[in-house]
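A further point concerns the way the authors explain their paired sequence and structure data. Nothing conveys this as quickly as seeing an actual entry. An entry of this sort, consisting of the sequence and the corresponding backbone structure tokens, reads as follows:
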Amino acid sequence: MYNDLTGWEPVSAGGRELSLLRYLSGESVVPSFLRIAVFCSFFVVLTPPQTRGATFHLLDMGTGLSSPHVVTVDGIQMTLSDGGVFNSTASSFGIDQSNPSDDPNLIDGVEILFLIFDQDVFLDSILISNFEGQDNGYLDLKSTATFPLASGIINVGGIRLKAGSTDYRVGASNGGFSLDQVTVRAVPEPTVLGIALVGLMGLACRRCRG
């Protein structure tokens, strides 16, 4: 409070002597750089991180592709693995198992295609074609979810897939079909600004305790 004889006098604030004049001038017990860090952190929280999207087009890549086959789009790497040979024509993608009953241009019979990523991704959708009424197939995300297949876009809803895992597969249980596209988004990493603010706030807390 203000005294006509002595000027500004300390007032109590939470058990700690705090000068009102120092508070008004910004020199409170909270370091100024900490207050700036807290203020800036709101922008980090309110600004959504930018995610990189990638659509893997599996048609027209060529025939006789050996497994595993790696496809890279926008910095995201997807490995297709089966143990056989892949045929990618202008109208279909399939697995060639080199047996008389196999359609070399479709995923058919009991064939299974593994999808392996080099980083964590969100799986948004896959695109299926050449799927007819008697055909049966599935997208198996192991313990997370299993989706029955049909012609068209199969929306997955952004399920997170772990890097390097072999738990994600597309398989046939009867008939055959083509896997034309796989659409994913990279899992965003912490921003440089966010990391710097966390470090700054940690340093401020240490100074306050000191």
